Amino acid sequence: MEDFGRQLDEIGAFPMSLPPPSPHRIEIEHLVRRSIYQKLGRDLPRTAQAPNPLLVNISARHCHLTPAAVEALFGPGAKLTPMKWLYQKDQFAAKEMVTLIGPRSRVISNLRILGPCRSLNQVELALTDSIALGFDVPIRFSGNIAGTPGCMLMGPNGFFEMNEGVIRAAPHVHMHPDDAAFHGVKAGDFMKLKVGGPCATTFDRLFVRVDPEFKLEVHIDTDEGNACALQPDTPVELLK
Question: pLDDT 10s per residue in the chain (240 long)?
Fold first, then answer.
């Protein structure tokens, strides 16, 4: 994984105007739960034994761009403007958005850019998005874009053509090494995600990504999130 803090400095896009991120609610609840069990002298349940709490987030359609693509779309010297921190360290949703032009001139407007800039251009869509655009989009892991469809992006300064890079992101989990050790997995393994609630289901191929900078977080797309009716209070569990 790249040193995103260093990368932000290099592209001159460090979000100085954005207040530091506050601890997520789930992190606070995890600490409180552990403290209560310990004060009561009771054994911690497995979820409380985990070094970090599990957060499952729905990743809506978005794109990652290189500095060159940002300048082509928004003008020379343009940089991404952070709007909102994401859960992973130094990651943010930018104020900037683009229009995606697909086959037969079908478009998706207001496609959000996520920062900081990366070394390759990638658009991540759900199956419903790809059908609406007329794409045949493969399921891929992030960064594995060889042989994938391309598209045209339009910004206020002009167009940027991607020859490849449009994917459906495979369901995956970000893990710190401590999380991987707790669950007995390593980078490149697959796990299962058990989702409870009225539309209970299990995702059987959850790709494991491990890095010291990662927080424990699962990403599924909007179609997958809607199918299991995921809500903030929906019970979720990682299974090996």
Answer: 444 444 444 444 455 578 988 999 999 999 999 999 989 999 888 888 999 999 999 999 999 999 999 999 999 999 999 999 999 999 999 999 999 999 888 999 999 999 999 999 999 999 999 999 999 999 999 999 999 999 999 999 999 999 999 999 999 999 999 999 999 999 999 999 999 999 999 999 999 999 999 999 999 999 999 999 999 999 999 999
Cα distance between the two ends of the chain = 24
Provide DSSP, 127-147.
HHHHHHHT--PPEE-TT--TT
Q: pTM, whole model, 2 decimals?
A: 0.88
Sequence spans of domains, the chain: 59-168
Alpha-helical segments (H) within the chain:
4-11, 25-40, 46-49, 67-74, 127-133, 177-183, 222-227
The number of C-alpha atoms within 13 Å of 196 and in the hemisphere containing its C-beta is 7
Evaluate whether 177 touches 212 at the Cβ level (below 8 Å).
yes
Contact 160, 69 (CB under 8 A): yes
